[in-house]
């Protein structure tokens, strides 16, 4: 098996799933299979479904009769659960974000290091690319993407600069793009600034937040009472969505109460504070630096 990356918070996430030997579990972000391998080690007669829309992940497939790889976006969770004749699942793990494999594969366009193509598709068969966004979106659309998905402070200036420059340039590589927007980059903050810009483009290209919300909504119906939901996030946008959903059952964080004034929510948070990697793990795994994990238990339906 080829390792995409060292699994983040491996022990903590497996512990959070509270695995039952005969249970049914889902790893919606298979990648290199690190988390899935550990889940299987703790299962006996159970079953594990894993999701990954990237065909590269197939080289890491686990040779185990209890394992099933769904080559699709996890927004289609319910479809595959029904396809495999599963009624309810005992737990679900989502390790969001981008794997080191994607960053290390320059032609996929996830990094601004080196002169890589402006792609960023998790699923190479998807139509929309970062190049399409930069060359076809209106100024208002670009401003929205950079402000909402990257929290870029000068999003409007950035959008205006892109519109101004693309009249004579068809953005196709990272070098072209970075040179064009260099006037927008604050002195001494190039890497941090570009990281936000690239995050915004990646989220837009892959519709990541929409997929996350679709996944969480399906968890209400598919995770059985007492089952666990474990989510690892890597930026504030994802974490806010997960936190609000676990606490209130919606993405706005609006508390809904019953007739007696008791809050109504489908999940019960099991950690009041987010779980973060130890200094030791961060030192050995740079991907862990911004990781935050939340664990919740499905309340009796």
Task: Outline the secondary-structure elements.
Elements: H1 10-17, E1 24-27, H2 34-42, E2 47-51, E3 67-70, H3 77-83, E4 89-95, H4 100-104, H5 130-136, H6 139-150, H7 155-165, H8 174-181, H9 190-206, H10 208-222, E5 223-233, H11 236-248, E6 256-257, E7 263-264, E8 267-269, H12 279-284, E9 292-298
Parallel strand pairs: 1-2, 1-4, 2-3, 4-5
Antiparallel strand pairs: 5-9, 6-7, 8-9
Helix pairs in contact: 6-7, 6-9, 10-11
Number of helices: 12
> Would you give the CATH topology of the largest domain?
Rossmann fold
Assess the beta-strand content as a share of residues: 5-15%
pLDDT averaged over residues: 92
- The secondary-structure class comes to alpha/beta
Keywords:
12 helices; Rossmann fold; two-stranded antiparallel sheet; 2 domains; about 300 residues; 7-stranded mixed beta sheet; alpha/beta; globular; DNA polymerase, domain 1
């Amino acid at each position: 098996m080829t390792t995409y990356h060292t699994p983040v918070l491996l022990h903590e996430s497996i512990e959070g799933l509270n695995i039952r030997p005969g249970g049914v579990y889902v790893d919606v972000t298979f990648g290199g299979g690190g988390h899935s391998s550990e889940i299987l080690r703790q299962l006996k007669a159970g079953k594990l479904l894993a999701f990954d829309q990237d065909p590269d992940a197939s080289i890491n497939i686990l040779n185990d009769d209890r394992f099933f790889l769904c080559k699709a976006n996890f927004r289609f969770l319910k479809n595959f659960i029904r396809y495999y004749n599963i009624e309810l699942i005992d737990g679900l793990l989502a390790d969001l974000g981008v794997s080191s494999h994607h960053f290390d594969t320059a032609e996929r366009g996830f990094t601004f290091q080196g002169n890589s193509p402006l792609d960023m598709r998790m699923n190479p068969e998807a139509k929309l690319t970062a190049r399409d966004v930069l060359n076809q979106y209106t100024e208002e659309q670009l401003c929205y993407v950079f402000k909402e998905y990257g929290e870029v402070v000068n999003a409007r200036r950035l959008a205006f600069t892109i519109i101004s420059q693309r009249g004579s340039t068809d953005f196709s590589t990272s070098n072209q793009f970075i040179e064009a927007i260099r006037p927008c980059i604050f002195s001494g903050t190039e890497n941090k600034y570009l990281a936000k810009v690239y995050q915004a483009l990646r989220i837009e290209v892959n519709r990541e937040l929409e997929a996350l919300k679709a996944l969480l909504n399906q968890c209400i119906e598919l995770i059985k009472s007492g089952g666990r939901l474990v989510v690892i996030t890597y930026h504030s946008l994802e974490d806010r969505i997960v936190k609000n959903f676990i606490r209130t059952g919606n993405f706005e964080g609006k508390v809904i109460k019953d007739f007696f004034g008791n809050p109504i929510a489908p999940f019960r948070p099991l950690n009041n504070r987010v779980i973060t990697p130890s200094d030791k793990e961060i030192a050995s795994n740079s991907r862990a630096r911004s990781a935050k994990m939340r664990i919740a238990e499905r309340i009796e339906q």
